[in-house]
Amino acid sequence: MSVAIVGIGRTEYTRRSGRTPRAMAVEASRAAIADAGLTPGDVDGMVTFHVNDSCQPTEVAWGLGVDQLSWANAVLGGGNLVADQIATAAAVIEAGLCRAVIVYRSLNGRSGHRLGTMEGPIEVAGEWQFDAPASWLVPPQWFAMWARRHQHVYGSTCEDLGQIAVQQRAHAVPNEHAMMRTPMTMEDYLAGRWINEPFRVYDCTAEVDGAVAILVAGEDIAVTCRQSPVWLLGSANSQGGSGWSAWDDPTAMYARTAGPQLWNRTGLRPGDMDLACMYDCFTYTVMATMEGFGLCEPGQVGPFFAEGRATYGGDVVINPHGGLLSEGYIHGLNHHFEAALQLRGQAGTRQVQDANLALVTAGGGPYGGANIYSREHP
Amino acid sequence: MTTTSDPGAVTRAPVPVPDADSAGFWESTRDGVLSIDRCTQCRRWQHPPLEACRHCGQPTRFEPVSGRGEVFSFIVVRQPTVPGHEPPYVVGLVELAEQSGIRLTGVVRAPVDAVHIGMPVEVRLMPVGGGEFRGPEFVPVSR
C-alpha cells in the first residue's frame, strides 16, 4: 500500500504563546484533520518527538475527543527524528497496525526552554559530562565547531554561510506565517552580532512557540480525502553513534550515508528535486547536508546560493518558506508542512512552479534522515 | 589583542556527574593526571570511556596520556549561553597525540586571535565545581 500526507495543520508562530504545548498540539491536529476532511475518530495513531518540552500523544488525543489510540509514541530526541517519524508512521500503516496517524511537534521554543541556552548551576551526566568543564553543551556551539572545520578543509567562508541566511530570508519575506520577514542583505548578515565564531546571530534558527501536525494515511483513506495526497516515495536515516566530539569528519554530516541510501532506494537523483526543505537549525547544516545529499559539490554551496541556483528559476528551490532560520523553529516538522503545501500547489505567492518532487531533510551532525515526497502517485 | 578570561572562572562551569564508566577519568584528573580509557587487549584508546572496548569487546582500563595534542577545531564564544567562562574565550576540540580521533574539548588559554587549527597544545587540569573535579584546559606549546 502507498502512504501519503493527507492533511496538514499548524498554529500561528509567536514569541510568547501563553498556551500549553498540549493546547497548541490539539489545535494543529484539529486543523490537519479538518484539512483532510476527516474526523478525529478517524485517527488511531499519534506520535511526536520532544526534549521534555512538550506533551504526550495520549493527552493530545484526549483533547481531540479520542479516548484511545492504537499507537501512541513519544520519542526523546531532536529534529533528526522528524523524517523518521513520518516514515515510521507510514510503516505502521503499511503493517496494518493503524489507518491514520498524526505526527506532531508542539513547543514553546521561545518563551519556554530555549535549546541554545543553559542556566546554572548545572550538573551534566552521560555522554556530555566530558564537555562540562568547557561549557561546550549546546547546539550553537557544536555546529559552530563543525563549521570551523569545514572552513579549514574546504575554504568555505562566513560569507558562504551568509548567502544561505540571506536567500532564506528573501524567501520568508512574502510568507505571512514566518517570524523573520524583514529583508536582509549580506551587509546586514555580517553586521549581526557574534554568537560563537564562526556563527553570527543570523546563522542560528529563529526560536518560536507553536505546533505543526502532519496527518498520514494509507491509499484507502488518501483517495477519499479533501486534499490531493502527497505521497511518501522513500526515506533514509543515518543516526550516528559517535557524538559531537568523536565524529570522524565534521565537514560531512549524517547525509553522507543517508543521501546515497535515499537515492538508491528511490531511483531518483538530486537533480530531480523541484524543491528541498533542508533542515536548518543553523546555516552550516544546510551547507553540509546539501553536499551530503549531492545537491552541490563540497565547498561550493556559497557560490550555489550566490548564483541564484537555490531559488526560483535556479536548480532547486531551497526552503521556499524561509526555513527554520526565518520561518521559525518548529523543530523541522514545518518543513514537511511546506513540502506538502508546495506539492499541492497551494503555496500562493511562493509557489514553486510545477512542483512535483520534494526532498525534506531532518537533523544535523551525526544524526538525521530525509524523506522524498511526490505529487504524483508512485 | 583580546585574551581569554582568568582561569579562576572555570569553577563556575557545569559540573560533570561521573558514572561507573567514567569514574576513572575524573579520579585521575582530580589527581592531576589525564588518563584515557584503553583496551587491555587490542590497545586502542577510546573516548568517551566504556568498561569494554567498542572494537573487540575486551576489558579496558584508564592509562595516562601525554596531554599533548593539536587543535582539531575551535570556536570563539562571544555570547554566553552556558555559564562557566567570561566571553570572549576559545573552546578547542583537541585531538590527542596518542591516537587519531581521540578528542577532548577544553578552553584554550590563549589570545583568541592566536588560535588556529593544527596549533600544538598541552593540557592543564583546572578545578571545576568548587574543586571536587578537575577538567581539561589547553595552552599553546611549541612543537
Characterize this entry briefly.
The complex is a heterodimer of chains A (378) and B (143). By secondary structure, chain A is α/β, with parallel strands linked by helices.
Give a structural overview.
The complex is a heterodimer of chains A (378) and B (143). With 378 residues, chain A is of the alpha/beta class. Chain A contains 13 helices and 13 strands. Chain A folds into two domains: 124 residues, Thiolase/Chalcone synthase (Peroxisomal Thiolase, Chain A, domain 1); 216 residues, 3-Layer(aba) Sandwich (Peroxisomal Thiolase, Chain A, domain 1), CATH 3.40.47.10. In chain A, 33% of the residues lie in helices and 21% in strands. In chain A, the strands form two sheets. Chain A has a ten-stranded mixed beta sheet, with helices on both faces. In chain A, strands 6-7 form a two-stranded antiparallel sheet. In chain A, a hairpin with a 1-residue loop joins strand 6 and strand 7. In chain A, helix 1 crosses helix 2. Chain A starts with a strand and ends with a strand. Chain B is mostly beta strands. Chain B has one domain. In chain B, the strands form two sheets. Chain B has a five-stranded mixed barrel with strand order 5-6-7-9-8. A three-stranded antiparallel beta sheet of chain B has the order 3-2-4. The radius of gyration of chain B is 15 Å and the shape is globular. Chain B starts with 14 loop residues before the first strand and ends with a strand. The N terminus of chain B is likely disordered. The chains are: A alpha/beta (378), B mainly beta (143). Chains A and B meet through strand 5, helix 4, strand 6 and helix 8 of A and strand 1, strand 5, strand 7 and strand 9 of B.
Give, in order, the helices and strands of chain B: EHEEEEEEEE
Measured by residues with Cβ under 8 Å of the partner chain's Cβ, the largest interface is:
A-B, 42 and 42 residues
Under CATH, the topology of the largest domain in chain A is which?
Peroxisomal Thiolase, Chain A, domain 1
Low-confidence stretches of chain B: 1-10
Q: Name the poorly predicted regions of chain A.
A: none
Radius of gyration of chain A: 19 Å
How helical, in percent, are the residues of chain A? Answer: 25-40%
- In percent, how much strand structure appears in the residues of chain A? 15-25%
Oligomeric state of this protein: heterodimer
The 3D shape of chain B can be described as globular
User: Would you identify the CATH architecture of the largest domain in chain A?
Assistant: 3-Layer(aba) Sandwich
> Which CATH first-tier class of the largest domain in chain A would you pick?
Alpha Beta
